[in-house]
Design a protein that fits this description.
Blueprint (H helix, E strand, L loop, with lengths): L5 E6 L2 E8 L2 E4 L5 H16 L4 H9 L9 E5 L2 E6 L5 H12 L7 E5 L9 H13 L5 E5 L4 H10 L3 E5 L2 H11 L5 E5 L7 H6 L3
Parallel strand pairs: 5-9, 6-7, 6-9, 7-8
Antiparallel strand pairs: 1-2, 2-3, 4-5
Helix pairs in contact: 3-4, 4-5
């Protein structure tokens, strides 16, 4: 991004936060500092092609996120970050950080399904992802489905924090209904084959 100065920050006017680029504010259409980096690159590329910032801002104002790809939903006085369409180790870690940076100061809960197509090292990779999540400010990790259970193994081995291994979507939805508290920030994420959007549906969203 050359000599340009950019950063990400929380914003009361934009629930996803905002990009600060060379002194100008750009509300983010999707949450997370990784999306601020993406927007920064897009803005600079469009400028290089000769597009005026007013055109870019108009386009951003009309942006609508794809289903289950970084949408923020309101549920029972909680915020749900619905990123359930897909997952890999890098995107999972980015989503966890985005979750902890959402507005609010109550608990952060990650409800995560298995990540697919990781080959023979899948268990080890899930375990390492759990360890990486333990290094964030995540409060509670919930692994949904047996193939995701190594996430909790890695998380619990690295930090003494609450975690659960639940067999399926209904148990996951029931856990949230029974244990969520006002102000909680909740991530729901997993690979496409994990179909974690079923939890969203069981919550009535």
């Amino acid at each position: 991004k050359g000599d340009h100065q950019w950063s990400w920050e929380n914003s009361e006017s934009s629930p996803n936060g905002q990009l600060l680029l060379d002194g100008d504010c750009w509300p983010l259409p999707l949450p997370g500092r990784h999306n601020a980096a993406n927007l920064c690159a897009a803005v600079l590329a469009c400028r290089a092609l000769g597009l005026d910032d007013s055109v870019l801002r108009k386009g951003l104002a009309g942006f609508s996120a794809s289903d289950h790809r970084g949408s923020i939903l309101a549920w029972k006085d909680c915020l749900i970050l619905d990123d359930s369409y897909n997952a890999n180790p890098a995107s999972l870690q980015a989503a966890i950080i985005s979750l902890t940076e959402l507005p609010g100061d109550r608990r952060t809960i990650a409800m995560v399904g298995a990540m697919a197509e990781l080959g023979p090292d899948s268990v080890k990779i899930h375990n390492n992802s759990g360890k990486a999540m333990a290094e964030t400010e995540l409060n509670i990790l919930i692994a949904v489905g047996e193939k995701s259970f190594p996430l909790v193994d890695g998380f619990a081995a690295s930090r003494d924090a609450e975690s659960h291994q639940l067999p399926g979507f209904q148990e996951a939805a029931d856990w949230l209904k029974q244990n969520s508290k006002p102000g909680d920030r909740i991530l729901i994420k997993g690979s496409r084959s994990s179909a974690m959007e079923n939890i969203i549906r069981k919550l009535g969203l």
